[in-house]
Specification:
Number of strands: 10
Strand content: 5-15%
Distance between the termini: 45 Å
Structural class: alpha+beta
Largest sheet: 4 strands, mixed
Order of helices and strands: HHHHHHEEEEEEEEHEEHHHHHH
Number of helices: 13
């Protein structure tokens, strides 16, 4: 039987997380500089005790299986939990930090868990899982964005070492990271899928140069610059065992993983909530969010059911496209309803709008994901043998008349 309710035991945990976020976590965004800034004494006093409480509730690092210290809830339950954790803002969300599910550490932890050696797991994975250090995924390049066909950062063997040279752009959270996962070209003549390798690079390795920390316009990221770093790798020498996975398999490794104002605001002697255009925007925003929510939950359910990301690639791409679109459109509606206040820094809508654009770029451009969805859809259909499309009514009528000819003749049709 199809059921849209989670089991009562997990629903209790979701209810607890909801209240915990409201009462303890969400207020933090107004008193700490940045949730990743371990040098901030206010942050260090307030966040670790909350993390311990999350651990006691069995909700720490829910993206991981029991063998790595997580509860192994699966993607569907994780989606329901993340729906609660992601609502804090503006700026970097505090919830995922408190619950041990912050990106890009979540994906980097999965990569290290799947491809890391025992030594790499002990040195890098354990601190990430514990939440005592942070990591960054260093892939995008300034001249080609996220298109691996034009990547120029190289890693060349030199004795018992690899030497990395090149530049990486928009490496998320590198400003706060202790370790970088770097994608570099090692087989320049190979097919694109076999051209790159993945390396684990401690951030303080000689030659790792931060050109600048790029701040997203309209996004609150604390003092001292943004969270997305422009990095130059200048003859960065790392040992041979810094390779993650097999040589030339880097591309595959990288693939692993408020209250509204209208009720209180009036204009021309009437509440905004009574204006039909405002009502339309509110209704449309709700419908967009609900449709997107169901798409996310269905995709999470498929991941749990098939346990094979290749079977859900189209769904994942669709989620990434719709996420950007819905966030941008809903934030725009909210901003319009709130007028000049919505445009100001006293409300989070500009940050939400900017983040909507960010979402459409951060994990690959929405246009690329859209093309991927189209290509996968088209493989599910065969071209027709005739001149006309498969649903051409005159052709179907002729076929039907041929199939039932004896009955039609019998009745003079």
């Amino acid at each position: 039987m199809w059921d849209f309710e989670t089991d009562p035991e997990f629903q209790e945990k979701l209810d607890w997380a909801d209240q915990f976020m409201t009462n303890e976590v969400e207020p933090l965004q107004y008193v700490i500089k940045h949730p990743l800034d371990l040098s901030d004494p206010v942050r260090q006093e307030l966040i670790p005790p909350l993390q311990e409480e999350v651990r006691r509730q069995g909700l720490w690092a829910c993206h991981l299986g029991p063998e790595l210290g997580g509860p192994g809830y699966g993607q569907l339950k994780l989606a329901l939990l993340n729906e609660i954790l992601g609502r804090s803002g503006p700026g970097p969300t505090v919830g995922p930090i408190v619950f041990g599910t912050a990106a890009p550490d979540t994906g980097n932890a999965e990569i290290l868990a799947h491809y890391g050696t025992p030594e790499q797991k002990d040195r890098y994975l354990r601190p990430l899982i514990d939440g005592s250090t942070f990591s960054a995924f260093s892939m995008t390049e300034p001249q080609g964005g996220s298109d691996p066909k034009v990547f120029t950062t190289t890693a060349v063997e030199d004795g018992d070492s690899w030497v990395i040279n090149g530049e990486k752009w928009f490496s998320s959270n590198a400003r706060w990271a202790e370790v970088l996962l770097v994608l570099a070209v090692t087989e320049p003549e190979a097919h694109i899928s076999k051209r790159m390798s993945m390396f684990v690079v401690p951030v303080h390795t000689p030659g790792v140069e931060f050109i600048r920390h790029v701040q997203v316009a309209g996004w609150v990221e604390g003092d001292g610059g943004g969270d997305h770093s422009y990095i130059r790798y200048n003859n960065v020498r790392i040992p041979k065992d810094a390779l993650l996975g097999d040589r030339g398999q880097g591309f595959g490794v990288a693939q692993t993983p408020t209250r509204w104002r209208p009720r209180s605001r009036t204009t021309q002697g009437e509440q905004l909530a009574q204006k039909q255009l405002v009502q339309q925007m509110i209704a449309e925003a709700w419908m967009e969010i609900e449709q997107f929510r169901l798409l996310v939950l269905q995709t999470a359910w498929k991941i749990d059911r098939y346990n094979d990301y290749n079977k859900v690639r189209m769904d994942i791409s669709a989620v990434k496209v719709v996420a950007s679109k819905v966030l941008s459109e809903v934030a725009t509606k909210a901003l319009q309803i709130h007028g000049s206040l919505g445009l100001s820094e006293e409300m989070p809508f500009v940050s939400m709008l900017v983040n909507g654009l960010h979402v459409g770029l951060a994990d690959g451009p929405s246009e690329i994901h859209t093309l991927g969805v189209a290509k996968q859809l088209l493989t599910q259909y065969k071209p027709t043998d005739g001149v006309f499309p498969s649903q051409h009514i005159p052709t179907l009528t002729e076929q039907a008349r041929t199939k039932y000819a004896s009955t039609l003749v019998k009745h003079g049709k």
